[in-house]
Write a structure and sequence with these properties.
The chain has two domains: 201 residues, Fructose-1,6-Bisphosphatase, Chain A, domain 1 (2-Layer Sandwich), CATH 3.30.540; 124 residues, D-Maltodextrin-Binding Protein, domain 2, CATH 3.40.190.80. Helix content is 37%, strand content 19%. It has ten helices and 15 strands. The strands form three sheets. It has an eight-stranded mixed sheet, sandwiched between helices. Strands 12-11-13-15-14 form a five-stranded mixed sheet, with helices on both faces. The protein has a two-stranded antiparallel ribbon with strand order 1-2. Strand 11, helix 7 and strand 12 form a beta-alpha-beta unit. It is globular. The structure holds 2,6-di-O-phosphono-beta-D-fructofuranose. The site of 2,6-di-O-phosphono-beta-D-fructofuranose has 12 residues, from loops. One of its GO terms (molecular function) is metal ion binding. One of its GO terms (biological process) is sucrose biosynthetic process. It comes from Bathycoccus prasinos.
Length: 391
């Protein structure tokens, strides 16, 4: 039996076991955050130092709750996001067959053409989060302003997301992904629908959303590629789960991902080279003669042009991904809130770095919802080397 089959069988068995135990104990787990029996089961497992590979995502989320890494509401938000990702994965896979490729005929607030699937994926994400009843404010790349979730307000969490990043690739069936970040809401800033005007509610939503990345309580992405992979951190390492379509569940396939400290792969849109600063050009030229170990093998170029795919490869193989500012767009292309901050959170949790070229992205205080920043991420040593050319 090859490794792939092995993993699938292990995953399916674990899923069945978890299903059986979940049907008898899931409500108890939700309502009694740390019942003594659930604590005991978890600590036995932890003491045994067992690998968590093969754990279904829903079980892992409950374990994070038992470990006190997240609370009950946060757990529900994460489960909802995993459902949204499964739905989007299925839509992406069927896009060509179901007539969902091409433009929707509208532009978003940033002046970008919206693809049909951008609009549909946004609806999927928004609806799933709304129905979870645990998110108070949501902000999407595809929406002009952050939205307070009126129907269920009372949810503590603020979710920022890009429902379908890299969607210019979709018609060619190249990888795309969803990216999200979750913040705790600002308790001083709860919108009151009964007494406040829409403008006042909106101002409070913006304030809830514009938090620095270091306030993130969790972040993740889901990549829609040859397989569908959900990668997440709740502040205690980074874990990857592959969708097992036979059982409809994400199964852990990557435990505590660590970005290699260095790596000889660079991922930049070099077509913009002429518009870069002299320092950045010098950096790029140096990679072609071995980087800081001048005279050694040149770096390899890999650029999909889809952030989630490029970032995922960088996490696993090391190296550097960059989208710098240039003469035409001094702050680059990528958005701070729902691209750079969540990816930086993941990179740091995996022992890597996320920088705007001068310092940590997670330190930046957003001034507006769709703010763009130059972005460099990946292996710590590679990001530090890049920064040495940007002073
Ligand atoms: P897209 O426009 O297809 O949605 O931020 C969006 C993004 O893709 C990233 O996913 C991707 O890395 C980048 O833009 C690609 O930009 P360039 O085409 O300028 O290289």
């Amino acid at each position: 039996m090859d490794d792939g089959v092995d993993i699938l069988m292990m995953a399916s068995t674990t899923t069945m076991k978890s299903f059986v135990s979940k049907t008898s104990s899931s409500s108890a787990l939700r309502n009694t955050k740390k019942s003594s029996s659930s604590k005991r089961v978890f600590s036995v497992r932890a003491k045994a130092g067992q690998s968590e590979m093969g754990t279904p995502f829903s079980t892992w989320v409950l374990q994070q709750e038992m470990k006190d890494n997240i609370d009950n509401e946060h757990a529900i938000v994460l489960q909802s996001i995993s459902v949204a990702c499964k739905q989007i994965a299925s839509l992406v896979q069927r896009a060509g067959l179901a007539g969902m490729t091409g433009l929707a005929g509208e532009q978003n607030v940033q002046g970008e053409d919206q693809k049909k699937l951008d609009v549909i994926s946004n609806d999927v994400f928004c609806d799933t989060l709304r129905l979870s009843g645990r998110t108070g404010v949501i902000a999407s790349e595809e929406e002009d302003v952050p939205v307070a979730v009126e129907e269920t307000y009372g949810g503590n969490y603020v979710c920022v997301f890009d429902p379908l990043d890299g969607s210019s690739n979709i018609d060619a069936a190249v990888s795309t992904g969803s990216i999200w970040g979750i913040y705790a809401g600002d308790s001083q800033c709860v919108p009151d629908f009964s007494s406040e005007s829409p403008a006042e509610v909106e101002a409070k939503c913006v304030q809830n959303v514009c938090q620095p990345g270091e306030n993130l309580v969790s972040a993740g992405y889901c990549m829609y590629s040859s397989s569908t992979i959900l990668v997440i951190s709740v502040g205690d390492g980074v874990f990857g789960f592959t969708l097992d379509s036979a059982v409809g569940e994400f199964i852990m396939t990557h435990e505590r991902i660590q970005i290699p400290k260095s790596g000889k792969i660079y991922s930049f849109n070099e077509g913009n080279y002429d518009m870069w600063t002299p320092g950045l050009k010098q950096y790029m030229d140096s990679l072609k003669t071995g980087g800081k170990e001048t005279g050694t093998k040149p770096y390899s170029a890999r650029y999909i042009g889809s952030l989630v795919g490029d970032f995922h490869r960088t996490m696993l193989y090391g190296g550097i991904y960059g989208y710098p500012g240039d003469a035409k767009n001094p702050t680059g292309k990528l958005r701070l809130l729902y691209e750079c901050a969540p990816m930086s959170f993941l990179a740091e949790q995996a022992g890597g770095a996320g920088s705007d070229g001068t310092g940590r992205v997670l330190k930046i205080n957003p001034e507006k919802v769709h703010q763009r920043v130059p972005f460099f991420t990946g292996s710590v040593e590679e990001v530090a080397y890049l920064e040495s050319f940007m002073k």
